[in-house]
Amino acid sequence: MKKSLLALAVLSAFAGVASAQSSVTLSGNVDMGIIRSDGQWTMGGAASGRNNVTLRGVEDLGGGMNVGFYLNHRFNLETGNINSSNSGSGTPFWRQGWVQIGGGFGDVRLGKMLPPVQEFNGGYEPWAGGDTVGNVHTGGKYAGANNARYSKAIYYRTPSLGGLQGHAMVAAAESQGAVQSTEKPVGFGVQYSAGPFSAALAYDRNQNDLKTIGVYGKYNFGVATVMGQFERQDETSDVFNSGLGVDKSKRWSIGAKVPAGAAMFKIGYTKWKDEDVSKFGAGLDYSLSKRTYLYADVGKLSGDAPSDDNKKAKFDVGISHAF
Questions:
Q1: Which residues pair with 319 in a beta bridge?
Q2: Domain span including residue 250
Q3: Which residues contact residue 247 at a Cβ distance below 8 angstroms, ignoring those fewer than 6 apart?
Q4: Region 83-102: what's the mean pLDDT?
Q5: Local structure of 291: helix, strand or coil
Q6: Domain assignment of residue 253, yes or no
Q7: Does 199 fall in a domain?
Q8: Beta-bridge partners for 271
Q9: d(Cα 323, Cα 31) in Å, to the nearest integer?
Q10: What are phi and psi of 189, to 5 degrees?
């Protein structure tokens, strides 16, 4: 009897170690609301990123080494279809998918992923990089080029050195969604985060030799977190002029998030220089739990480039749940 109990205890201990060495998690978000945009009322998610499923796995190899994977799928909750807002979205994991190995040297990813510009910029905008009609995101994307994420990419991150971390990426020239692919996309970045302060600098060159430089920063004062973005791009999409490109565009934004109990107030302003477009955004999130909140936002464009319909105030109200 004692031997059986001892054997059972030993097996249980080994099982506990094995389970601690590897894990697979399922997470994501579902969002649905009512939106008024360009004079029309519709129902849908606030933005494509609000409805997604992510599979993430990690295995501890010992000695400080680990391997893992990441698969992210976006979908339209109102229809159940795969999100079709980006080229290549006919496949389930069109947004990001990679395998990773890490250790004391940092980590290396292989697959399809965001470049450093896109890795950073969403974290320095009150609406997390484009969610809801109130967002003041600078974008970081060229006209006619799918540089929001790159296929056949290698991405390296250094270990954090006192809050400072370096990023570098290179990808194959082909299979990047461009008509003519002549250059290997490359990206570099550095980010510093310590206490209430965070800042980042990033560079991206796509397969058509178009370049973006981004500078980002934020500071949490306790009563509010103030943040800003600045991006200079060789060519950007003129969304108000039949998709024509705008050469040497500069975009900047400022914003703030102000917590008040269960509520979070958001406010921001962005200016697209050389395109004569500016935008004001404001919003309110109200938490029902750690995973669920209600939101309401307003966004207003101004300038000579937007049409009269584009200049009409946009509204959304909805509910978002993370799992």
A1: 32, 294
A2: 115-144+193-323
A3: 234, 235, 274
A4: 72
A5: coil
A6: yes
A7: yes
A8: 252, 278
A9: 11
A10: -165, 160
- Alpha-carbon distances, residue 313 vs 41, 255, 272, 282, 296 (angstroms): 12, 19, 18, 11, 13
Domain count, the chain: 1
Whether 56 is in a domain gets the answer no
pLDDT in tens, 193-232: 999 999 999 999 988 888 899 999 999 999 999 999 999 9
Q: Where are the alpha helices (DSSP H) in the chain?
A: 2-21, 116-121, 308-311
Q: For residues 36 and 314, is the Cβ–Cβ distance under 8 A?
A: yes
Q: Are 204 and 116 in contact (CB under 8 A)?
A: yes
> Mean per-residue pLDDT for 97-109?
96
Burial group, residue 45, by CB count within 10 angstroms (0-12, 13-18, 19+): buried
**Residue 19 backbone dihedrals phi, psi, to 5 degrees:** -70, -30
Q: How far is CA 81 from CA 74, 141, 171, 218, 318, in A?
A: 9, 25, 29, 36, 20
Type of residue at 288: L
CA distances from 307 to 130, 213, 299, 310, 323 (A): 21, 29, 15, 5, 39
Distance from CA of residue 217 to its chain's centroid?
A: 16
Residue 45 lies in a domain: no
Are 209 and 183 within 8 A, CB to CB? yes
Is there a contact between 41 and 35 (Cβ–Cβ < 8 Å)?
yes
CATH of the domain at 124: 2.40.160.10
Strand partners, 260: 263
pLDDT at residue 289, rounded to an integer: 97
DSSP 64-128: TEEEEEEEEEEB-TTT-PBP-SSTTTTSTT-SEEEEEEEETTEEEEEEEE--HHHHHHGGGSTTT
* Cβ atoms of residues 136 and 125 within 8 Å: yes
User: Rounded to an integer, what distance in angstroms lies between the CA atom of residue 99 and that of residue 69?
Assistant: 4
**Cα(245)–Cα(177) distance, rounded to whole angstroms?**
17
